[in-house]
Write a structure and sequence with these properties.
With 203 residues, the chain is mostly beta strands. Helix content is 11%, strand content 39%. It has 2 helices and 7 strands; from the N terminus they run ββββββααβ. The chain has a 7-stranded antiparallel beta sheet with strand order 1-2-3-4-5-6-7, with no helix packed on it. The longest helix is centred in the C-terminal third of the chain and has 12 residues.
Length: 203
């Protein structure tokens, strides 16, 4: 970071990531997959002491069953229906994690795994129909303040940046991520099956 902002923005940030994946298969009939990720994030804000935090996250974790007439997956999944790697129009099921910005070579870290049930059925030799059911709403992840990629970042009005700087100086890093997430909405859908969403693709 080459600019010393007045909003409590980080002037240095380091991130270390560890990821583990376990998979159990029984021939071509079924498999169980579980992925976990642990990020260590250390930052030095423009004002205040250096701080760090751990961010554990469950990634893809699902059970899959294969039959000659269908394939079923249930659990935490990333569904990619687009033919392009970045921001494909058909990749609308998984919310994005934009806290690290857009300057990346691998789009995978920006996609948030969500609870899904997917069924894929072949229709003849050259056509497949896929149905995905999302039972619960999962929000996207983005910083509201405190980084160059934040919604209220370097281009926010000076008075807003100053107020956010004072606010961040008083926030303990152990709750900052939850606070940022809460500021992204004024109301969210209830975690009820009544708010389930269904998507389908014919290819």
């Amino acid at each position: 970071d080459t600019t010393w902002e007045d909003n409590g923005e980080d002037v240095f940030e380091a991130r270390t990531r560890a990821q583990i994946e376990l998979a159990v298969r029984r021939g071509e009939t079924w498999k169980l997959v579980a992925q976990g990720r642990l990020d260590w994030v250390g930052d030095v804000p423009a004002r205040g002491a250096a701080r760090s935090r751990f961010e554990p996250r469950l990634m893809e974790a699902y059970a899959a069953v294969h039959h000659r007439f269908f394939d079923v997956r249930v659990g935490n999944q990333i569904v990619s229906w687009s033919l392009v790697d970045f921001f494909g129009a058909a990749d609308f099921l998984n919310p994005l994690d934009l806290r690290e910005g857009l300057l990346f070579s691998d789009p995978a870290p920006t996609r948030v795994p969500i609870p899904l049930a997917t069924v894929e059925v072949p229709l003849g030799a050259s056509m497949t129909v896929t149905v995905a059911v999302q039972p619960f709403f999962t929000p996207m992840r983005v910083d509201v303040f405190g980084s160059d990629w934040a919604l209220l970042g370097p281009n926010a009005p000076a008075s807003v940046r100053a107020a956010l700087g004072e606010l961040r100086a008083r926030i303990d890093p152990t709750i900052e991520a939850q606070l940022q997430e809460s500021l992204l909405s004024t109301r969210r859908p209830a975690a009820s099956i009544d708010n389930a969403q269904i998507a389908a693709r014919l290819r």
